[in-house]
Amino acid sequence: MATDVDDLIARDAAALWHPATHFDDLDALPPVAIVGAEGPWLHAASGARILDAIASWWTSVHGHRHPRVMAAIHRQVDTLDHVMFAGFTHAPAVLLAEGLLAAAGPGFSRVFFADSGSDAIEVALKLCLQYDAQAGAGRRRVAAFDHGYHGETLGALAACGSPTYRAAFADLLTETLFLPTPSLAEHRQHDLGSAAGAEDPACAAALELLGEHAGSIGALVVEPVVQCAGQMRMHGTGFLRRVVEHAQALGIPVIADEIAVGLGRTGRMFAHAWSGVVPDALCLGKGLSGGALPLSAVLLSPRFATAFRGAPSRAFAHSHTFCANPIAAAAGVASLGLLAERLGAPIDAGIAALDRARDAVARACPAVVASRQAGAIVAFDLRPHRRRPADGRIGLHLRAAAMARGVLLRPLGDTLYWMPPLELPPDALDRLVDATIGAIEEVLG
Ligand SMILES: Cc1ncc(COP(=O)(O)O)c(C=O)c1O
Prior knowledge:
By secondary structure, the chain is α/β, with parallel strands linked by helices. The chain folds into two domains: 32-65 and 344-444, Aspartate Aminotransferase, domain 1 (Alpha-Beta Complex); 70-342, Aspartate Aminotransferase, domain 2 (3-Layer(aba) Sandwich). The chain contains 14 helices and 16 strands. It has helices spanning 4-15, 55-58, 67-77, 91-104, 117-134, 154-158, 163-166, 201-213, 237-249, 302-307, 326-342, 345-364, 394-404, 426-444; strands spanning 34-38, 41-44, 49-52, 110-114, 141-145, 176-179, 217-222, 226-227, 233-234, 254-257, 281-284, 296-300, 368-374, 377-382, 407-408, 415-418. The chain has a seven-stranded mixed β-sheet with strand order 4-12-11-10-7-5-6, sandwiched between helices. A four-stranded mixed β-sheet has the order 1-2-3-15. A hairpin with a 5-residue loop joins strand 8 and strand 9. Helix 3 runs antiparallel to helix 11, helix 8 (201-213) runs parallel beside helix 9 and helix 13 packs across helix 14. The mean pLDDT is 95. The structure holds pyridoxal-5'-phosphate (PLP). Pyridoxal-5'-phosphate binds next to helix 5.
């Protein structure tokens, strides 16, 4: 007789379409039914405890169901679920905006809330391009980094510098100027804040390209420190500093996409701070609500608001329905408070523990050809050692091998990465190291 879990999986297979999932892979890797979560652990319907080593697509910065985030959600549910944000306001939105602005410093004066990371990127790009048009400059192109990832709506996708995401829509995407980016195969947390990356030939080429095309570029969008979906490429803070300073000197507004790397992930509240630059717009998402609810935000420098005053046609037309949802914003206020308390020694200790774990895996596995870390992001580049999967799909096989060992990993091709909650308890870290070594050995030798 079929169990409840089998029944659920069969009904899922009949009714649902999952993101980032190829139908033909579902036989080998069906979705795992989850009934609960706590801290870094997912509770499977089968009774298994699975370590969420990628924080459910980089969202649950404090682990799942953090009591303070949950309490804030419960309190908010009791008073106000939602109200449209045009013509209305509420305390959670005001408190979260004030908290974000205080954390980000005087370079920012206003917050526009959005629903997803992609939505935040659309907001930032549209604001920059409309700002430019209203200033009479009319620069309509966007510049972005090679291998970058900014989301999958058509505007954000146009700024993605990786064929994996663009290929099926390439003919529909507006033309972007892609800048070469250095890629430091080996990188340590202590390299943050140094000039690493600035001396790379890609840096000189990026600066030259920007200069050449400055007259047509209305915005440059960058992922500070780590290009996460771009196989966790780390470009060095010196590179970022030089490109951002050059763009701003050319009058090009810079959008920092910190949807993945912001809010403590690199060991500081915001990743751009490692480069000592201040972008003109700052996009946040994923962990903004503590990872519990969809919420994103764009922080903007003061010049934007003034440029949108005047005739009604100068207003910004972007109005997604759930903008500034009060429950998500209340979760965000609680999460930001937690981050402010934990940044510094507690989170640094978690980052140091991950560095030791990284070293243990790199030493144990000959298939690891390079490893790198920035904050609580760790990546291993892999090459087959004694074995290679016949179908060549290293990432898929590693995912299955890790899941069989009770750990959720989703390698990006032949780069395996960890992006867990910012602080992992020792039993979780031990499981992470053992399962990673076991999975790499099983698949690659
Ligand atoms: C850097 C970056 N920007 C944008 C996005 C898109 O965010 P969302 O999936 O919430 O639309 C992501 C998602 O992974 C991301 O990593």
